[in-house]
Amino acid sequence: MLDRANRLLVPSARSNVPPFMVMDVMAEAARIEAAGGHVIHMEVGQPAAPAPRTALNAASAALATGRLQYTEALGIPSLRGRIARHYAESYRQPVDMGRIVVTTGSSGGFILAFLTLFEPGDRVAVANPGYPPYRHILTALGCEPVLIETVPESRHALTPEALLAAHRQKPLQGILVASPANPTGTMMTADALKALIVAAEGEGIRVISDEIYHGLDYAFPAETAARLSDRVLVINSFSKYFCMTGWRIGWMVVPEPLVRPVERLQQNLAISVPTLAQIAAEAAFDGRDEMEAVKHGYEENRRILIEGLPRAGLEKFLPVDGAFYLYADVSRFSEDSAVFARRMLNEAHVAATPGVDFDPIHGKNFIRFCYAGSAAEMHEAVARIGKWLRG
Ligand SMILES: Cc1ncc(COP(=O)(O)O)c(C=O)c1O
């Protein structure tokens, strides 16, 4: 009897996804701060800056009306139109606003995209290292994430050769690419992205492009997959360049024949995306000056770390192309980057994320620094790490 009652409380196998290690780092940092310590936070991947003033003003005005109702499932038409215009303005690529779908962050976009494109059991290639929820959401939806090892020579991006080799071993139905990427901060050139899309589509493999870090490109301009093929499903977000993580709003550019299926899913799963966030997001496009200033701050932070970390003793890291991440190899100091990160936090009060969150295979060698804070914090982090490593 008790057994039967207890079985009611057993979670489904599909819900058994791993936790995020970064949360443990945050908890440890909070303990140090509660005891009076001052931690430099470089563990969480989010802008320190608030949403642009234009977005905040639009949200205040909307709130004052007191009426926030459901919107169309695909999003407020004027926001969809504004996002479509963004492609014409930023990439010189006209996109029909009918193909724009507003989502609950790019996270909401992944669920809609995976459900629309894949059947249970489908195999979807993702880069290793990579953003963990790609594989965890796929698993929860009954798909199989296929981790493809990346190498420094290709800036840790997926290549046609690696994709086709995995496909020959056992057929793939999809591939998810990201440039700039998390955790590596590396980018794919337009040619590399094009070659990958051509190779995938030639084999009937569906392509999803996560472009959440677009706008935060320093090495060379990021290319949108929407310019390269109208069969690719593009996912983007207001979280990073637009500094709107907590607003939970993003968008997709969906191949035209798939818009109606996505719309039906969104109607059933969410009805619509929070209205206040949609109104703020549309106005955020008018706050470009503020967002560009924030971006210039990241560029300065990037310079401080590229110059400072080697002097501090951390001289081995991947090309710091875009996003706000620097992925450093700490294998010279420790066999386990989780131990290294814990010691750095406790002894130098600098918080970073161990690579095992992003890479079950080689993550023990790496830690990820997020440089979305202030320049003063970057200088202080370099000084503390240098003193700690020497000491
Ligand atoms: C590569 C990548 N994609 C997607 C997301 C999800 O972001 P959001 O749901 O806030 O748009 C993140 C968040 O850190 C990310 O790093």
Q: How many alpha or pi helices?
A: 13
Structural class estimated from helices and strands: alpha/beta
Write out the distinct hetero groups bound to the structure: pyridoxal-5'-phosphate
SSE series: HHEHHEHEHEHEHEEEHHHEHEEEH
Question: How many DSSP E strands?
Answer: 12
What does this structure look like?
The relative contact order is 0.17. This protein is an alpha/beta fold. The model has no long low-confidence stretch (mean pLDDT 96). The strands form three sheets. Strands 2-8-7-6-5-3-4 form a seven-stranded mixed β-sheet, sandwiched between helices. It contains 13 helices and twelve strands. α8 (190-202) links the parallel β5 and β6 (206-210). It has helices at 2-7, 21-34, 53-65, 77-91, 105-117, 132-140, 160-169, 190-202, 259-269, 275-284, 288-312, 337-348, 375-390, and strands at residues 40-41, 100-103, 123-128, 144-149, 174-178, 206-210, 233-237, 250-253, 325-329, 350-351, 353-354, 366-370. The site of pyridoxal-5'-phosphate has 13 residues, from α5.
SSE inventory with pairings:
Elements: H1 2-7, H2 21-34, E1 40-41, H3 53-65, H4 77-91, E2 100-103, H5 105-117, E3 123-128, H6 132-140, E4 144-149, H7 160-169, E5 174-178, H8 190-202, E6 206-210, E7 233-237, E8 250-253, H9 259-269, H10 275-284, H11 288-312, E9 325-329, H12 337-348, E10 350-351, E11 353-354, E12 366-370, H13 375-390
Parallel strand pairs: 1-10, 3-4, 3-5, 5-6, 6-7
Antiparallel strand pairs: 2-8, 7-8, 9-12, 11-12
The protein binds pyridoxal-5'-phosphate.
